[in-house]
């Protein structure tokens, strides 16, 4: 059974609505005599408490586990900065949908009691590694837990691009863009674009066109170990951009390539032992509501 002695506390920044939850959580952790490293994201929420704040790099180096209070976006940001250190994450939902941050504030203390007693399940989530290549130069490298999206930038015109899977030509498209999604991200932007819901345990990647000009273009699911490459058309008439989890954005030029592979590491999520993905789908997507 793992022993958690040092805990990182990461919050959605500048959100006064989560202040009570964060302070309750902090008192709970201190009451268990755990060493708590409060992330700099909590600066405004915990102001005037006299607590020392710590950079994310120190949390990655020292913590046995990190608790994230906020929405899925907050957890995405935390995951992107902690996955290399393989720090497991626990999500407390103070956002909207909450597919990733799955512990409700009302049951936070009882759920954490279970987790700290060793009663939890650990979920390993596929992570993308994306490279932006111009000619022979790699301009940028970043990671994504949800999706990497190639899209038009601030204009209402179509993007032209080619897509390859493992070096084999898939198609040429004219569309508003393309969402390359992990199973985790299948309930995010990809779902809004008409993509399939993929169970998080699947080793798969979905490609979802955004408003394709040819209506026969449909989402396609490929092996999670595939190499996906998107090449901006040489005569593409509109400004393009690639986004990593909606948090890092890089401008693209004609002939730029985006190469997407599976990252060497996964994101570790700790969930209650009775965590049920299908129950979350029913609740968040309101599948069981009567008309």
Give a brief rundown of this model:
With 291 residues, the protein is of the alpha+beta class. It is 18% helix and 37% strand. The chain is built from 6 helices and 19 strands.
Spell out the helices and strands N to C: EHEEHEHEHEEEEEEEHEEEEEEEH
Can you tell me the CATH architecture of the largest domain?
Answer: 3-Layer(aba) Sandwich
CATH class wording of the largest domain: Alpha Beta
Look at the helices and sheets and give the structural class. Answer: alpha+beta
Shape: globular
Radius of gyration: 20 Å
Low-confidence stretches: none
User: What's the overall average pLDDT, rounded?
Assistant: 93
Strand order of the largest sheet: 8-7-18-15-10-11
Tell me roughly what share of residues is in helical segments. Answer: 10-25%
CATH topology of the largest domain: Rossmann fold
CA-CA gap between termini: 46 Å
Strand content: 35-45%
**Number of DSSP strand runs:** 19
Major β-sheet profile: 6 strands, antiparallel
**Whole-number tally of structural domains:** 2
The CATH superfamily label of the largest domain reads: Probable inorganic polyphosphate/atp-NAD kinase, domain 1
Number of helices: 6
